[in-house]
């Protein structure tokens, strides 16, 4: 009897080890666990195609000789397979708790730390909570994700209370906090009732910083308020939304890119964030986008495609896009650098100073605009267009200006100087 019980315990441990091994692998690679048929007896020889990655990996282990996975497939152990979705979730939760304990230990061993919080993009009643800490041994900075916090209301008092409650719940030594970093919303940075003010009342060492990358993107967005650039970005948003709405449109674009730009890795246009114009707007994709809209144009119901194509085949949009692409190339490098965990304040200021220097150099060096102009004109002529003033300027104060002079002073230089 004792021997049978010991064998049962050993077998269950072997099963759990195989299950945990698979869950760990799937979690590390950010794969989906379950399929449509993640239920019933586990038989590695007869796994359905839609049984999911979890069962698929267990099946592979069983057929490869893994003892625990083979035991799971044993018909005699159907009542104790330990692979139901509920048990999968429980094991994942236990693994997450272990990881969180390790992170908290690192935080409490570090000489100081900073907290960051931001709302989730799809549901504004949840916060993402992070901690950036300094390693005591190597003096390197690390970022730890501490989880989601649900909040009933998004007032400064409610958010601050939720953050502090969560940090104290995790037994984090709050005496070592030296900074807090959020976006510039009133409920976060408010001088009296904002999150930063409330937390600093309790922990005076927690100096508030407006997130550098958020501030940088706001500045970049404001600089894009030059009329032609603003119209160009609005058009880009409409085109991106249209092409990413449905697999037929995105699939057609990917196919055309593969044919005409075989070396291009990006096969679709990314969604544009209204506060992140620092990403490059790939001018290389403009030709394939127009060809895609032409194909959509053959469908009688695709009036939107015809309108978008007409908007893109316009010199003011083309030159605006080429200018955006050129300036975004500079902004993107700074944007990426500011998001680095290893970046400190002096390095951030250094990057901004370098950017200012490069922008001033572009103002002084007309040859840079000449290159942009030549590329835009070449592309425009390839689709039968010639340089022309924007329609809204043809009767305005600049109606007598040469197109090149107009786009140099009223768009390119105006965009850089904002």
UniProtKB/TrEMBL annotation:
Pfam families: DUF4371. Coiled coil: none annotated. SUPFAM superfamilies: Ribonuclease H-like. Residues 46-194 form the DUF4371 domain. PANTHER family: 52 KDA REPRESSOR OF THE INHIBITOR OF THE PROTEIN KINASE-LIKE PROTEIN-RELATED, DUF4371 DOMAIN-CONTAINING PROTEIN. This is DUF4371 domain-containing protein.
């Amino acid at each position: 009897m004792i021997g049978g019980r010991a064998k049962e315990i050993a077998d269950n441990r072997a099963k759990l080890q195989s299950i945990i091994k698979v869950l760990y692998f799937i979690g590390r690679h950010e794969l989906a666990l379950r399929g449509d048929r993640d239920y019933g007896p586990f038989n590695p020889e007869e796994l359905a195609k839609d049984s999911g990655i979890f069962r698929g990996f267990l099946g592979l282990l069983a057929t490869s000789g893994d003892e625990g996975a083979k035991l799971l497939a044993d018909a005699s152990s159907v009542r104790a397979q330990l692979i139901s979705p509920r048990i999968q979730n429980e094991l994942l939760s236990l693994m997450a708790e272990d990881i969180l304990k390790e992170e908290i230990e690192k935080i409490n061993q570090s000489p100081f730390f900073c907290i960051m919080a931001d709302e989730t993009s799809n549901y504004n009643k949840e916060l993402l909570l992070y901690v950036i800490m300094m390693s005591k041994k190597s003096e390197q900075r690390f970022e730890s994700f501490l989880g989601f916090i649900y909040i009933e209301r998004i007032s400064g008092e409610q958010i601050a209370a939720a953050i502090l409650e969560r940090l104290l719940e995790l037994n984090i030594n709050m005496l070592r906090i030296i900074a807090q970093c959020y976006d510039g919303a009133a409920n976060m940075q408010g001088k009296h009732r904002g999150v930063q003010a409330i937390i600093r009342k309790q922990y005076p060492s927690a100096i508030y910083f407006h997130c550098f990358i958020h501030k940088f993107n706001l500045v970049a967005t404001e600089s894009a308020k030059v009329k032609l650039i603003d119209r160009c970005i609005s058009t880009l948003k409409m085109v991106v939304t249209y092409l990413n709405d449905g697999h037929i449109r995105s699939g057609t674009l990917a196919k055309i890119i593969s044919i005409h730009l075989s070396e291009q890795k990006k096969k679709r246009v990314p969604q544009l964030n209204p506060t992140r114009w620092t990403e490059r707007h790939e001018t290389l994709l403009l030709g394939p986008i127009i060809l895609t809209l032409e194909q959509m144009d053959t469908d009688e119901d695709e009036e939107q495609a015809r309108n978008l194509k007409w908007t893109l085949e316009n010199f003011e949009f083309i030159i605006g896009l080429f200018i955006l692409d050129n300036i975004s190339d500079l902004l993107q490098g700074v944007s990426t650098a500011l998001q680095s965990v290893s970046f400190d304040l002096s390095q951030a200021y250094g990057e901004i100073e370098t950017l200012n220097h490069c922008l001033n150099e572009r103002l002084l060096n007309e040859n840079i605009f000449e290159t942009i102009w030549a590329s835009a004109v070449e592309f425009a002529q390839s689709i039968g267009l010639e340089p022309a003033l924007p329609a809204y300027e043809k009767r305005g104060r600049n109606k007598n200006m040469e197109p090149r002079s107009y786009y140099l002073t009223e768009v390119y230089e105006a965009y850089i100087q904002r």
